[in-house]
């Protein structure tokens, strides 16, 4: 079971003893597990269900219709990404292969090769505040949103409503994390002022791909700072605890959200917090949920939707892990103990001063979304 964090307590009074305990628990959970479950009373299960309905209707359109919403010239960082486009990085990445090799065979992902493109589709809706043009080196991160023709009158409101709910939650988690690491509460919020945040619903057609052990999204980490998910109607997400390598099936209660550490957080903390590996596959519980859904809503499309949000640091923000970890009000012995508790992996060098946008562009090349 993943650690459960109560964001409501922190929001009421961030300086209270219980709020500080929640903040330290947030940092501890992300260091040990790379993930946590967050309780936030602003999260409405009705809003989540309504959003899932809209996304099912959108992704039930023909491939020809979805193709109109793709923007490959912008590395698919707005609009739709069709199935069999995005490739898991692990197949071509030695560090990812080292992670798999370090896992106990019983804890390894289903897809050991990760050499095929994922069957999932995505839609990226940008929710960040773009930086002034003269102050950014990453113009492709500030591209306009795409509004699908068949949803012209309702799309923006649907995306903004759910996106704002989970964006508020992940912003609160970033504040709790900062406090838990002994940093100013707004440390990560300031660093994400112009972040190219993305509401990124992901879809898999269960009629076509809903077979036991089918891979929906191969073993991978995310390239942003923090990833937050609402509850899907169909289980299938597994994550790996970063300290133990244990494979954990995610079971998200109604009204709760899942938060995972991603690559920008790993880099900026110098590997104290490691990006969380995860895989989405068709399991027995996926098939059981599909049968239940067929009985309760036979008229609805059978499409697995993950209501994902990618929270980013600003593209022009320079990550300085040595400087940041030096500011943390944590005992050096405690930090070293946490590092020592992680599964044994080859050492990683985190460049001091690398811009976030450079890291993102490098990661996009690895997953075949950016072509040079």
Automatic annotation (TrEMBL):
<dbReference type="InterPro" id="IPR027443">
    <property type="entry name" value="IPNS-like_sf"/>
</dbReference>
<protein>
    <recommendedName>
        <fullName>Isopenicillin N synthase-like Fe(2+) 2OG dioxygenase domain-containing protein</fullName>
    </recommendedName>
</protein>
